[in-house]
Amino acid sequence: MGLLCMDEYLDERISPVKLIYWPDEATQIPAHWHTNMELNFIASGAMTLLENGRELRMEAGAVHFMNSGVVHRMEVGDSLGLTLVFSNKFIRELCPGTTAPHFDWNACPQQQEALREAVLPMYRLSQELYLNGQKIEDDPYTYLLVNSYLYRIAYLMVRYFRADTPEESSQVSGTNYHIQQAVDYIEKHFKEDLSAADVAAKAGLSREHFSRIFREYTGVTFKRFLTSLRLAVAYRLLVGTELSTMDIALSAGFPDSQNFSRHFKQHYGCPPAEYRRTCAQPSARK
């Protein structure tokens, strides 16, 4: 689980793309947005995506572009796949004249198979790195292979799958803007005693209108969204630090350890202390 405005840091001295491999396990990524553009590839299994309030079901072999500024939530089943997160600078340099290029998988059906075939070597490389516990920067030459695959993918994307105009790319829809304002505020203030009315006011909306469009765009209620964010923060602290349950609860915005433990058990199936002792994978603490 991740935070809400999930802009990725990419060290462009290594590569202008970040590889995120999906292992064969169920994963839920709560609603979020970022300025980075990304490409998702499903190698096997399936993924459900809620994008600006629209639900998409993608099966094995599917490729999907997630454009900058789009509020989305992902549910990945027992699937294998890859997400490529592109550097903003890299994408903008490839697409001069626009601040946020837009890509559409359906813009050129004739080239879909070519792009799918171009992504496959990158997927296989990411899988190999994951299984061997390696990163791109661990080997002084792996980045050359990554970038050779990347430029083939980028060539096809920019030549055949651009679907924007400079005017369209520089605009964010009114509703999407309000949702972004809301999630930004929640991300910065999740430790506080937040209410839907507080966040609605910061987004410039009535509580009723905010609650309706928030659920439409994120797929969950404000209360559930806030709890999911707090659990995401708590999970990282639980598996990545030696903090006490009480300290984790307060750091993640829960009022006390009992409230935190109750929500954690509902989500993960066991209390935090037991999860830390028996359920967390050793690799999670790295």
Q: CA-to-CA gap between the ends?
A: 17 Å
Rg over alpha carbons: 20 Å
Helix content: 40-55%
Mean of pLDDT: 82
Q: What string gives the helices and strands in order?
A: EEEEEEEEHHHHHHHHHHH
| Chain oligomer state | single chain
- SSE-based structural type: alpha+beta
* Strand percentage: 15-25%
What is the molecular shape? globular
- Give the total of beta strands: 8
Strand order of the largest sheet: 1-8-3-6
In DSSP terms (H or I, runs of 4 or more residues), the helix count works out at 11
Largest sheet: 4 strands, antiparallel
Secondary-structure map with pairings?
Elements (H helix, E strand, L loop, with lengths): L16 E6 L4 E6 L5 E7 L1 E6 L2 E6 L3 E4 L5 E5 L3 E7 L1 H7 L17 H20 L10 H19 L5 H4 L4 H16 L6 H8 L3 H12 L3 H19 L4 H7 L5 H12 L3 H8 L7
Antiparallel strand pairs: 1-8, 2-7, 3-6, 3-8, 4-5, 4-7
Helix pairs in contact: 2-3, 5-6, 6-7, 8-9, 9-10
